[in-house]
Each structure stands twice: as C-alpha cells, then as structure tokens.
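Handout for the seminar on molecular recognition.
Each group receives one record of this type.
Step one: identify the two inputs.
Step two: read the structure output and locate the region that could contact 3-phosphoglyceric acid.
Step three: write two sentences on what you found, then compare them with the reference statements printed after the record.
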Amino acid sequence: MKTIDALGDLTGKKVLVRSDLNVPLDGTTITDDGRVRASVPTIQRLLDAGAAVIVTAHLGRPGGEPKPEYSLAPAAARLAELLGRPVTLAEDLVGESAQETVAALEPGQVAMLENVRYDARETSKADEEREALAAQLASFADAFVSDGFGVVHRKQASVYDVAKLLPAAAGLLVQKEVESLSRATTDPERPYAVVLGGSKVSDKLLVIENLLGKADRLLIGGGMVFTFLAAKGHDVGSSLLEADQIDKVKGYLQTAEDNGVEIVLPEDIEVASAFAADAEHRTVAASEIPDGWMGLDIGPEAGKAFAAKIADAKTIVWNGPMGVFEFDAFAAGTKAVAQAMIDADGFSVVGGGDSAAAVRRLGFDEAGFSHISTGGGASLELLEGKVLPGLSVLED
Ligand code: 3PG
Ligand code: MG
C-alpha cells in the first residue's frame, strides 16, 4: 500500500482526506469521539508537511439528500478542538459553498465538506455516477489520502473512485489498522483465540467459516450463542434465536471438531425475566434455561473460563459484546473478556463497532489493548478474509 511519504513534497499542496467521522450522536452531542480522535494524526501530519487539508466524511445514512440531523457540524467542532485550530465546514459537498471554502484555503488550514452522503452519487451502484462525483471531489485537491478505515469495505465515490483520479495514499490510521488486523489474521502467533459475540449469528457466518480454518479457539457469547446452544439440543427459553441457522451451526460444530478447532461455549448464562435494565435475573446452567426467561449475558463461570482461554493465547481477536452491556446487570461477561485481554501478554485486537464502544463505555484503558479498531464492518470483512475495495485501490 502506498503511504503518505510516497506523495512527495506536500508544501503548498491541497490534500483531500477521507476520514470516518461517523460518530454516535445524542442530538448534536457526540457520545463517543473515538473516530474523530483517530483521524487527528494524519491530518496533523499533513498540516506539518505544509499542506492545506480538505476533509470529506459521512455521518449516518441520510439517503442521498441533505438532512440537518446528519450534518457533520458536531464532528467538525470536535476536530477543531482536538487540532487546536479552526475547521471551516462548508455548507455543501461540491456546490458553491464548498468551492469557495476550498478556494480560500491556505497551507496549514483545515476545511471540511458537508456529509458526502448528502449526494446520492456517493453510494451509487452505477460506476459513472460515482465517477462524476469523484471527479468533482478530485478537482479540489492535488492528492488524496484515504484514512477512513471504517469505510474501506465500501466501493463508494469518496473512498474508491477518487483514489483513481489523484495521487493517492493510505493515511496513518488505515496503515495502523491494516498492520494490526493483518498481524492477527494472516499469520497469527499461536494459540490464536477469537472471541465472537453480538446479537446475530447470521452477521458472523462468513467470519466463523473463515476462522474454522485458522483459529485454535473460538469463544462464543452474545445473543448469537443461543443458536449454538440450540444446535447442541438445549432449550433456550425466550432468548434470541435464529432457528433458520441451527443446521448451519451444527455444521460448524462438526467442522470445528474435524479441524481440531476448539469451540468454547458458556457453561452458564445470566437469564432475565424481561429485556430491561431492572429485570429480575439469575444465573443458570446453559443447558437449563427456563421457559419464559431470556439469556442476556454469559454467566460468571463462563466469564472465568473465557478468561482462562484468553490468558495464554498469543493472538486474541474480539468482535461483539458478550451480553447486553448497556445494562449494568448484564455487563459482567463483556467486562470479563475485556479485562482478560488487558491482562494477557498476547497481541490483542478489538474489532470496531459495538465491542470498541463497549471497551470505552465500560471505562477500560484503551492502552491495555494492542489495537482497538475504528472499523466495524471493515474489520469484520478483513476477518472474513475478503479483499476490500478501498484498500486494493491504494496498492502500488
Ligand atoms: C461504520 O459506521 O461502520 C462506518 O462508518 C461505515 O458506515 P456504513 O455501514 O453506513 O457504510
Ligand atoms: Mg495485554
């Protein structure tokens, strides 16, 4: 992959940077600024090199038209705070406001274009529509730096097509993400343990299939575990269950046995009378979930067992919370996994999305992990072994 150095002397140049500033908002308040913080090193580096920086990014899925609740204004304000210099937000993406903002931009200054998904061409399946938008974006700059790791799995105008029109390179975040995730996925130091959670097994099918040929241990928790328990013949009460995936999961259990991959399922489950923070709850054996009760977390014994499987692993990858960590009563399993990864000496990677949010929200020190990804879907697709369009386009 080409890196910023390959772009040569950037003094006085305008550089278009694709960042992923898709942060969770409560109104206009950012509730987790991880992605904004992760975008700073590349922008700072380009400013230090004497460039003017034009940031393009998306927020949410506004559906191809301007909607004020999807404005990048909160992200622009937070970025300005972190950089300690103004960030001018254009009122549009490639219109009059953007053109004026970019024309007035001096070296050492930062501008941001409004939400790139206000333009339907950004996510269009038609190549020529994406290319037309990419050409307008490219006309603003002398070079392109791709740093939005969270979107490199998307074949979109500001991620993929624009990289073909300008001298292009990976930013520092994309570089670091790819290095960390490749170290964990291509030739992992063994034992290689993968912890999978999250609500749906159907979201993780490709990952599981790929890992059944790679990992030494697969630890399963979260809502998806109940489809595994059902595949083993257990009743799961009112827990989340994807009945149409049971046969597939039975096949996985068999493949795991054939390949010598250890699948670790929880021995106990924290069940609740309802899906609520203050629901009545208790610990039961995973094989004895009572009728009418739903599992909302792995149990305390499972937490210890998972920790033991993480402790001596040389590579640990984690994607998806173990339970409904947003409710205190059902956060213990997720906390146990996070703490075990921090305590382990192995190379520890947290996949993005919910597990990264969980780590921060539960107050763990991010420095305790080798790498916390900013990409949800993107890190998952790398774990699936896929080639990502936003990365392959940056190859020499
Ligand atoms: C994410 O939040 O995973 C990225 O920003 C990508 O967003 P998308 O799933 O809407 O493409
Ligand atoms: Mg550690």
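Reference statements: Residues 51 and 276 are 51 Å apart (CA to CA). Residues 34-48 form the longest helix (15 residues).
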